[in-house]
From TrEMBL:
Its cofactor is pyridoxal 5'-phosphate. It comes from the Archaea. It comes from Methanimicrococcus hongohii. The modification N6-(pyridoxal phosphate)lysine is found at residue 231. Pathway: Amino-acid biosynthesis; L-histidine biosynthesis; L-histidine from 5-phospho-alpha-D-ribose 1-diphosphate: step 7/9. It holds the Pfam family Aminotran_1_2. This is Histidinol-phosphate aminotransferase. GO terms for biological process: L-histidine biosynthetic process. Belongs to the class-II pyridoxal-phosphate-dependent aminotransferase family. Histidinol-phosphate aminotransferase subfamily. Residues 42-368 form the Aminotransferase class I/classII large domain. InterPro entries: Aminotrans_II_pyridoxalP_BS, Aminotransferase_I/II_large, HisP_aminotrans, PyrdxlP-dep_Trfase, PyrdxlP-dep_Trfase_major, PyrdxlP-dep_Trfase_small. It is an enzyme of class 2 (transferase). Keywords: Amino-acid biosynthesis, Aminotransferase, Histidine biosynthesis, Pyridoxal phosphate, Transferase.
Length: 375
């Protein structure tokens, strides 16, 4: 028996798979420590918008307690968690679908419901890149539309990009990486004037003073809200997200998602997190006050420009330095920040920085000073 060459089988791969753009994730602390010879225990990680306060004590206890049930399947549709989310979101269980890994799994599932070969999805950029990557994997065509120069949504440009092949318009509010929110009236206009599904990614909504756009789900049959436990709830490692959707979309999602899409530990952690309003409020209050201080300090004390943000992160234009020079300077100070180069339509001079504790944010200002004084 001779082993056949892989080319024979590789031709079975769908063309769409070969066209999938790469997702560039923020690096982990151990990757950075190894690459730069740093002590992983002293590295400050501000590149993936994780919660610096960590999961709450109640969450850790719930995970430990549930560990002994790890041999058992959870309920197939995560009904305990969805029930807990009815209280948190104000929507009945029929409108809620929870799934892992992360909200990313629901972005994928929504594309799976609507996007096939040659179908288009509209993605206003710069934004979270996974919407287009996921659609491309299904043979879809991401159509990128530029945000306005101040990073607000260009509603008319989006409407102009709509064709009879448009299936989903992917919106993000507060937007990653720019931090700005979308006005309800803009979403209403899109929902009324197109027959596309409109997804609003609210991964950062808890940090926003503008509040949620979720009430629009009751007004329209084509609006879906995406949420995650990765940011305000500090559970990025648990990989859990949910959507608030019209019932017809929620039930279709449950049909295409794998059964048992939420692990028993993730469900226990999330239910405990929802029950710990105090920890959630502490995270939100810290981000809101530190965000304001950090933006003001960058704009007043450094030659660089920080933009306003409703998320747990900010972007800064570090011109005349490049984003890569800024990332390197910060690394030498033991701080990992994110270059925005892998986002479209934001240039090569912008970095994204997660809001940290007051002590950490002082170090961020020092790192900017260090960047400025560098040759
Ligand atoms: C972090 C993030 C997500 C991903 O959430 P997960 O639940 O961790 O998959 C989705 N959208 C945006 C805009 C994000 O920044």
């Amino acid at each position: 028996m001779t082993k056949k060459s892989k080319e024979i089988y590789a031709s079975l791969l769908k063309d769409s798979v070969l066209n999938v753009p790469e997702y560039v994730p923020g690096k982990t602390t151990s990757q950075i420590a190894a690459a730069y010879g740093l002590d992983p225990n002293t590295i400050i990680k501000l590149n993936s918008n994780e919660n610096p306060l960590g999961p709450s004590k109640k969450v850790i206890e719930a995970i430990q307690k549930e560990a002994e049930n790890a041999s058992l399947y959870p309920t197939a549709d995560a009904s305990n968690l969805r029930r807990a989310l009815t209280e948190y979101t104000g929507f009945p269980i029929e409108n809620i679908v929870a799934s892992g890994p992360g909200m990313d799994s629901l972005i994928d599932a929504l594309n799976k419901l609507f996007v096939g070969s040659g179908d288009e999805v509209i993605v206003p950029v710069p934004t979270f890149t996974y919407y287009g990557i996921s659609a491309a994997g299904l043979g879809g065509v991401p159509v990128h539309v530029n945000l306005n120069p101040d990073y607000s949504l260009n509603v008319d440009a989006v409407l102009k990009a709509v064709t009879n092949k448009t299936k989903i318009i992917w919106l993000c509010s507060p937007n990653n990486p720019t931090g700005n929110v979308i006005a309800a009236k803009d979403v209403r206009k899109l929902a009324e004037k197109t027959n596309a599904i409109i997804f609003i990614d609210e991964a950062y909504v808890e940090f926003s003073e503008a509040g949620s756009l979720s009430a629009l789900v009751n007004e329209f049959e084509n609006i879906v809200i995406g949420r995650t436990f990765s940011k305000a709830f500090g559970l990025a490692g648990m990989r859990l997200g949910y959507v608030i959707a019209p019932v017809w979309i929620a039930s279709a999602l449950l049909r295409v998602l794998p059964p048992f899409a939420v692990s028993i530990l993730a469900e226990a952690a999330a239910v405990a997190a929802l029950g710990d309003q105090e920890s959630l409020n502490a995270a939100i209050e810290m981000v809101q006050s530190e965000r304001k201080k950090l933006i003001a300090s960058i704009n007043e004390k450094t030659p660089y420009k920080a933009y306003s943000s409703e998320g747990n992160f900010i972007i800064a234009d570090v011109s005349p330095k490049t984003s890569q020079e800024a990332v390197d300077a910060f690394l030498r100070k033991g701080i990992i920040i994110r270059s925005c180069d892998s986002f479209q339509n934001i240039g090569k001079n912008t970095v994204r920085i997660t809001i940290g504790t007051p002590e950490v944010n002082e170090k961020v200002i020092e790192a900017f000073e260090f960047l400025k004084n560098e040759e």
